[in-house]
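INFO worker-7 received task bundle
INFO bundle size: 2
INFO processing item 0
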Amino acid sequence: MTETPQRNRPDHPGSASGGDDGRGSSLSKRGGGAPVGRGRTTIADGVVEKIAGMAARDVMGVHAMGSGISRTFGAVRDRVPGGGKSVTRGVKAEVGESQAALDLEIVVEYGVAISDVAGEVRENVIAAVERMTGLEVVEVNIAVSDVKLPDEDDDEDESESRVQ
């Protein structure tokens, strides 16, 4: 245990005031300042990409993320044991000390208003990233790379084995 500084001790041995001399209680705190000022927090680009990817996929009308090539490679990677689904597919983030900028590539469902879906994706991504990281999102660029037609098979179905 550390010894309490002399100024926090009672002025008189019989005093019940606890030595409160009107200077406030900041003297009894260790470290002398708010925890915010006691170190740095850095957030990796990949963390922001995961948050943005999940937020974008939550929007109705978004069929998939990424370009056709990245989705094809992703489908193959998903089939490899331990590969798992890539949440960051179609998302690129640039993260600074206090701000983030995002680029998303999406595939929309046929029949939805692309401008409405893009607006909802932008709102959802900004809200999620700012809430979870505290970073200011300065821009979210959205590229619509394809439209999923009702009669089209998914890219993931094409990579299935022909032999059963």
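INFO item 0 finished
INFO processing item 1
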Amino acid sequence: MATEATTAATASVRHGSSFLRTAIVLQTLTLFLQAVSAGLLLTSSYGETLHGVGARVMYGASMLYVLAAVLAWKPGGGSPRPIWHASGFLALASVQVVLGIAHVPAVHVPLGVLMFGLSVLALARR
């Protein structure tokens, strides 16, 4: 009986961890696509629309990262550190959206590069 409970808990932790990794991959991919759409923003008429839609998707991916971090932590009772990382990233994404709406590229662009680097780092650590 105890073995079944341990096996179920281990499977639950593995499932939460794979969901967390998937969320980080999605976030990293959306950030990369935002960089591509930023280039299109400068060169095409549809770039602004694509970048705006991508911003919403990237923000949603950041929220999914927080949810995945909470779900990965809760069943196993492990370290809440991924939750702090995901929450910090969501805060950076919020600042990024505000800076984009305010048209402050001097901070918006470097922050986007930083966010992409942090997301790749989080992906490498998983």
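INFO item 1 finished
INFO post-check item 1: The two ends are 31 Å apart (CA to CA).
INFO post-check item 1: Helices lie at 2-43, 47-76, 81-101, 105-125.
INFO worker-7 idle
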